[in-house]
Amino acid sequence: MTVHAGDSLPDIALKTLSEGLQTHFASSLFAGQKVVVFGVPGAFTPTCSARHLPGFVDHLAEFSELGVQVFCMAVNDPFVMQAWGREQKVPPALQLVSDGNAELTRYWGLELDASASGMGTRCRRFAMYIEHRVIKHVAIEEPGQFEVSSAEAMLAWLKR
């Protein structure tokens, strides 16, 4: 399967470390709200740390003004995601979630084989807008690109 606008969210578990190790199902974590989820190949990786995550941090107030919650997802364990969030000074309003076993990534058809770099299965860079558990817009980057999944691109889509 490849993710498309109109798809509903599955009951696949994601992990956070907000108050101890927590399990959340995608279908309920993003329920009843407007959400932007952006996926990155990996915490602490160059483009993810220098541009992708910082862009969403910088524009978080604009998303909030639109009534949109922001989540960042990666195929990293929740402890790595928490450490990355601290290092990047991510405010609590931007939630970092772990798809550590790449279950949601695979379900959406967004897996990236980074074995040549010693990183195994990762998530392709993407951003999507979800409203009440239904995907309304999805922007998937070509390998090595960073254009359509930026905070600026998602804000432009939301404000169109």
TrEMBL record:
GO CC terms: cytoplasm
EC number assigned by the record: 1.11.1.27
BP GO annotations: cell redox homeostasis; cellular response to oxidative stress; hydrogen peroxide catabolic process
Keyword Transferase: no
Annotated Gene3D superfamilies: Glutaredoxin (3.40.30.10)
One Pfam match: Redoxin
PROSITE patterns associated with the record: THIOREDOXIN_2
Active site (catalytic residues): 48 (cysteine sulfenic acid (-soh) intermediate)
Keywords: Antioxidant, Oxidoreductase, Peroxidase, Redox-active center
Alphabetized InterPro entries for the sequence: PRX5-like (IPR037944), Redoxin (IPR013740), Thioredoxin-like_sf (IPR036249), Thioredoxin_domain (IPR013766)
An annotated Gene Ontology molecular function: thioredoxin peroxidase activity
Limits of the Thioredoxin domain: 3-160
Role description: Thiol-specific peroxidase that catalyzes the reduction of hydrogen peroxide and organic hydroperoxides to water and alcohols, respectively. Plays a role in cell protection against oxidative stress by detoxifying peroxides.
Identification of the protein by name: Glutathione-dependent peroxiredoxin
Native organism: Stenotrophomonas koreensis
Taxonomic lineage: Bacteria, Pseudomonadati, Pseudomonadota, Gammaproteobacteria, Lysobacterales
